[in-house]
Design brief:
About 30% of the residues lie in helices and about 15% in strands. It is of the alpha+beta class. A hairpin with a 5-residue loop joins strand 8 and strand 9. The relative contact order is 0.10.
Amino acid sequence: TVSVLNWSSQRQRKATMRMVALALAATSRAMGYCLPDQACWPDAGLWDGLNSSVDGGVIALGSRDFDQCYAFGTDAFRYAREGGGVCMQMLSCRHMFCDAKDAESLYQSEVSVRVRHTDDVVAVLNFANAHNISVTVKTTGHSYAGSSQYPGSVQIWMAHFEKHTQKGLAVHTDTCGQETSHAVTVGGGQNWGEVYAAAAPTRHIVGGGGLTVAAAGGWLMGSGLSSSARRYGLGIDQVLAFELVLANGSVASVDRCSHADLYWALRGGGGGAFGVVTKVVYRTHPLVPMVQVSFSIAARENLDTTDAMWKSFIEFWVRTSPTLDRRWGGYWSTSFLLLHFAGSLADAKSTFVNDLDAWLQTRPQPDQSRVTRSVYEVSSYLQLRGGVEGMTDPSKTDQTGFGTPDINIASRLISRDFVTQQPEDAVWVLQNLHVKNVGNFNYFLGGAVGDVDVADAAVHPQMRAAVWQIETIGSRPGARLLREALAAVNASKSGGAGLNHAARDEPDWRNALWGANYPRLLSIKRAVDPDNRLNCWHCIGYEGKEGPENLAASDDLSLLPRPTPMPPATPATPPPRSVCLQRNLTDCNATNPCGDAALQCFSNSSAGFGPGQGCCEMIEAAHAAAPALTAAAVVLAALVGW
């Protein structure tokens, strides 16, 4: 109704603007955006016209409108769909950069527009272009850096946008002419609960853990972390096509053969920068049984380095996780595992559960008594989450609002090379988090995530090399401690931040979130949005006040002493060639007395060795004929019968 546009209420508007940081207003003026206290700001009649064109969706946001959000308790569904678009899943996002310590600053858009159709989005962007107003985009409010709002902006609120999943699964043909069966189309504001309910009864889809997280918003464009990513790839690796409204109001169909640069940028380059996504087409996968393993170790009264149970568990995880079967995925911390296996219970046991149990049996009984463990099999991921009925149940998903008033999350990507080549250092990094009581909730990566070429999508290149995404929670010094620990051990190919759960005060955030991809992303941004109409914190091309960087040291969170490095293992001395000659193929393969060249020989089925004939004999013959040849040449000589 037009009553929401009572811009003659100067008292409310001035109160709002007083709470907006003066630095933000000054920066917006410097960038040329029109602000509410300037003569260029549209009058009530113009806002009425926009309101009529979007079916009464324009909502003027006042300085006290956020107060209504406190009534939603921990119900993430209400934070997403109610409150006129002002509510955020984390309550501290009422303030600048989601920093509750900055209690005097109100960090919200001036106007929210509830859009239901693509034409509504076009109308808002055309209006903003005509009056030079900045625009932000919000789906369900899960940005923990506050990226979906900005003072003085018009916010496009997608939570009530039209749904497409009711159309079911279908064959999708992209602009290259390639067909993909069982694809599902998702509307720009739909959450994962709705998508799971529509697609997951008959197919598996790679999605988010939070049921209220938008399936076509910041989760996806930030990479799309998922517990099934190791089996199928990230969320961005499942996208077949986008429908996108560009900043100039035009509508684009985007896939690998149409607007290929945007297709690259939208898969990892972050939301709210390149346009407004109104539709996403996802690939799906055949259903398989799912096994969930829950394993936790109760804490001792004192956290210190003498807790042998904890240290043994971390050493087990560091040793095991990098090479674990890719059907395993999920979450972990320094004291628990919550893992999902895409397959049967029997396979889950043979690939990991038996090893976990065997490790546990090596611990003394008092240590074993601290463990809570469960393993169970279900028919699908949907059943694991409570079935279709559970997809709208607030108790089946993250408890936000008062459940997470200020979680201050931060992340770091940890490479597989670091964990496998520097295992003692990896244990030491985790030890710092555990002993210093830094909360952490981490993603298990690798597998199919690393199968995709780093140039395929805009996500930070280090994501493809990572085996973990470590996330610290609730402690600014804790995030700093993790960065310092990784730097102290020179953790190779580690250190970038995961955009899905990046710190609101991430130092050097452009480099941390995108690395070498940022220049290309910025070039694409300037090409599709030359006026920077879409402008938001932690977004490509952001212009405005920079938030505080989390750089301060903390005496109580200083790093633990480094462990004394173990001397490198002495390579085994190969036995004499005479021993080699006496070994048949099976024995030689098991013990490898002839060195790596023999192993290469064993793997070649075309060598034509008969039963019991030793590969090492062939290697020995080649050595006798040409002792100066390199190992590789010796193997080649043996294989061709020299």
